[in-house]
Design brief:
Helices cover about 45% and strands about 15% of the residues. The protein has about 250 residues and is an alpha/beta fold. The protein has a seven-stranded parallel sheet, sandwiched between helices.
Length: about 250
């Protein structure tokens, strides 16, 4: 699959699924903006993908701030001439009893996930429409489909992203913009590894709940994102692709 010359913006891409996605898109010929709140980490990731900096750029953004998001898109357009692909990956997580969730914590998590996805999509809309075949891929989660105790804010946010994906897909189709989402299950990221090491997750028990018997690799999520962003998915829009090893299709007995 060769997507030579197209431009992709990947938020939250200094590490984890975002970095795996940026790496795969670069491998397939796209020019890539590594967009993250941590500029130094973004720069390090960008150098790792292209030491000369000809095809990869690091850009800082605060997805909670509309002006910051607008400036980010303007910087990418100035650097690369446009935007063909937007991957809305920026996010955080939280855990705790639902009755103890504060307004501040609730607003911050939904503001980053739902608000950030909206703000980045809105800011990128003119460039995506101008590209004549733009694609947005949002990061949902199995948390959008199943109830996860003590993760109320996260589950709510991811369900909201699925709804946003469908609505934008219908509304922006006349502009040539496709909008889809991926919904990863448990994935082998640094955050999950740290959680396992701290004993907050029992990996053996978790693997036993997954029909395929293991956690996903970030590269497996990236492959699905890259497909939905590519011309091979030119007739797919408004869909959420679950990449979860089968965990959401079963009723354990």
């Amino acid at each position: 699959m060769n997507e030579q010359g197209r431009v992709a913006v990947v938020t939250g891409s200094a590490r984890g699924i975002g970095l795996a996605t940026a790496s795969l898109l670069r491998e397939r010929g796209l020019r890539v903006a590594i967009v993250d709140s941590d500029l130094e980490a973004a720069k390090e990731a960008a150098v790792g993908l292209d030491p000369r900096g000809d095809t990869v750029s690091a850009v800082q953004v605060d997805v909670l701030d509309a002006d910051s998001v607008t400036a980010m898109v303007e910087e990418v357009v100035s650097r690369f001439g446009g935007v063909d692909v937007l991957v809305n990956n920026a996010g955080i997580t939280s855990q705790g009893p639902s009755q103890d969730v504060t307004d501040e914590a609730w607003d911050r998590l939904l503001g980053i996930h739902v608000g950030g996805t909206f703000r980045c999509s809105r800011a990128a809309f003119p460039a995506l429409a101008a590209s004549g075949g733009g694609a947005i891929v949002n990061l949902a989660s199995i948390a959008a489909r199943v109830g996860l105790p003590q993760r109320l804010s996260y589950c709510t946010a991811k369900a909201g992203i699925e709804g946003m994906t469908r609505t934008l897909a219908v509304e922006w189709a006349p502009h040539g913009i496709r909008v889809n989402a991926v919904a990863p299950g448990w994935t082998r990221t640094r955050l999950v590894d740290d959680t396992i090491k701290r004993g907050l997750i029992n990996e053996a028990r978790l693997n036993a709940l997954i029909p395929l018997g293991r956690l996903a690799k970030p590269e497996e999520i990236a492959a699905a994102i890259a497909f939905l962003a590519s011309s091979e998915a030119s007739y797919i829009t408004g869909q959420t692709l679950y990449i979860d090893g089968g965990v959401t299709i079963q009723l354990p007995v």
